[in-house]
Design goal:
Layout (H helix, E strand, L loop, with lengths): L7 H11 L4 E7 L2 E6 H17 L7 E5 L4 H12 L3 E5 L5 H11 L3 E4 L2 H9 L9 E4 L13 E3 H14 L3 H8 L5 E6 L9 E5 H15 L6 E3 L7 H14 L2 E4 L6 H8 L3 E4 L1 H17 L2 H22 L6 H21 L7 E4 L6 H9 L4 E7 L4 E5 L12 E2 L4 E4 L4 E5 L6 E2 L3 H7 L6 E9 L5 E6 L4 E2 L5 E2 L1 H8 L5 E7 L6 E7 L1 H10 L7 H5 L2 H19 L9 E6 L19 H7 L1 H7 L5 E9 L5 E9 L1 E2 L18
Parallel strand pairs: 1-11, 3-4, 3-5, 4-8, 5-6, 6-7, 10-11, 12-13, 13-14, 25-26
Antiparallel strand pairs: 1-2, 8-9, 9-19, 14-15, 15-16, 17-18, 18-20, 20-21, 22-23, 24-25, 26-29, 27-28
Helix pairs in contact: 1-2, 1-3, 1-9, 2-3, 2-6, 8-9, 12-13, 12-14
Length: 654
Amino acid sequence: MVNSVDTLPRLLQRNAIQYANKDAIREKKFGIWQTFTWSEYEAEVQWLAHGLAELGFRRGDRLAVIGDNRPRLYWAILATQALGGVATAAYQDSIAKEMGYVLSHSEVKIILAENEEQVDKLYEVREEIPTVQRVIYDDPRGLEFNDDKWLIDYDQVIEQGRAHQQAHPGFYDDELARGSLDDVALMCYTSGTTGDPKGVMLTHRNLTSALREGVISEDWRHTDEVMAYLPIAWVGDTAVSIAGAMICGMAVSCPESPETVLRDYREIGPTVVLAPPRTWENILTRIQVRMEEAGSAKKWLFEWSMNIALRVEREVKDGRRPPLPLRILNQIGDFLVRAPLRDLLGLRRIRLGYTGGAPLGPDVFDYLRALGINLKQLYGLTESSAACCFQPDGEARSDTVGRPLTGVEIKIDDNGEILLKGDMNFKGYFKNEQATRETFVEDGWMKTGDAGFIDESGHLKVIDRAKDVNRLRDGTLFAPQFLENKLKFSPYIKEAVTIGVDREYVAAMINIDMDTMENWAERNSINYSGYRELAQREESYRLIQNEIAKINHSLAQDREMAGAQVRRFLILYKELDADDGEITRTRKIRRGLIGERYKPLIEALYSEAESVDVEIPVTYEDGRTAVLNASVRLMEAPVRTGAEPQPAPQAISA
């Protein structure tokens, strides 16, 4: 049951009454699931809120959480908001310098750090974060303790909180009552694709208004299950694991570690799944690799089942009811092949699957829907409190992101940029009034930076980032994200960067997918010592050349995009890395930095050179830097016409 919009802590209080003994949140520790009911959830939040008050935390103060998905970190966010404070989060895989910027800029007073790894980073930047008065640590393993009062154990804070609660029995309820829908509840930092991340101030009204409409329209239920494995610093996790759970009362499960997510998925069987495109692409890659390793009979059965399912999906997408024989064959294929495969992936109970944060390639989208996953695209920004457009059931399409929710207005300005208006729009950027003014135009409309249009069915279509959509020298449309998503449909391509603005043709820089390539190399008896050597082998280039040929063939069928086929490519000798600043922590490409750093490679792609020597700086996990020297090969890619047949595989098995 979805009640009226309220602050997140007051929604928690409602759930503790309405769903008192129902599972609210779980955590897997040492192989065992530990479960907390909604009444226990609220009790933990109350104790922590009292403990924070004992440490001097007051209304308007800021608290940061750093770590993997853990109940205690979520409780800290709710406890902060209950006291009228502002919660924020830093990406747990950030290097110390990145973390220091967010913590310094947000002026946090208290930090809850999961473990020794995060505490060590904080000590590295301690002088850069003078506003931090206390660091609460959750897991003490590995920590070297001294008399530094900067650190305090989580359990000690809880004990202080219980004592504070006994001494001030009405304190928590009084603080809760003082809360307002227009209080800033959360500060989420943007990816920072074009500069330093910006602190997006989101109020309780922002976080709950649009999401409440999404919960209603998508029929999220208190019996639903979700897995909290996405970074807490990403607004998408907040939308599902906190706001969504508070609004509809569903249960949230935290995996034991990032390495056990797949196994934990199988044990829980979530019914609602939100994942960025890379996660869905990884699922497809696992399927493709498994099928490559299967025997000929299993491979044939899988391909037969998927071909039937794709035909059914096309019929449904075109608004037609599939013929009865096709429907029967599809049910047989699902029973024999696809249902067991979904079970293997931990998706046996999935009702609703969502992809957001960046475009998902249409080939991947259609393939996963044919697999039996009710996958739908949604649209939103950090500044719009996550999603504000959803695809209704029966209207899922790879080329749109759905309809605006009730209370959300959308219009397209004269330059083709998407503008949003509604209660979900953020309050402003923290300590950046100029950027706030530049984002909002007249009458509360917010610029998104995305180019798109609304089609005849009322669905929003997003073409690309407005600043990235351009043309080749001959006037051909160049939409880099669209092309990169096509390339990443290949299981052998992990990341791609396409170049073409004001150029004669499109070129691409490729990161191979090491997991898939290792299996391929083993099957073909190819020796290598690591990523760098495998990436530059002739056999690898021929394999990627063949994959690009397939993609060019599909592009040739599109009159608008036929001229944007990839004509020349190279395989990078290192993976694009967030530690090097080349991609964000949410895996968005920083095109400006890549354009400067890889300028010699880009220029070589538009020459007749067959190789080029380069020097590129790299950053290791411990913060050390070095310079890599490498010789990179360059290769032509076959350009197709619409009349040509699909290219045949090369001699080396793919």
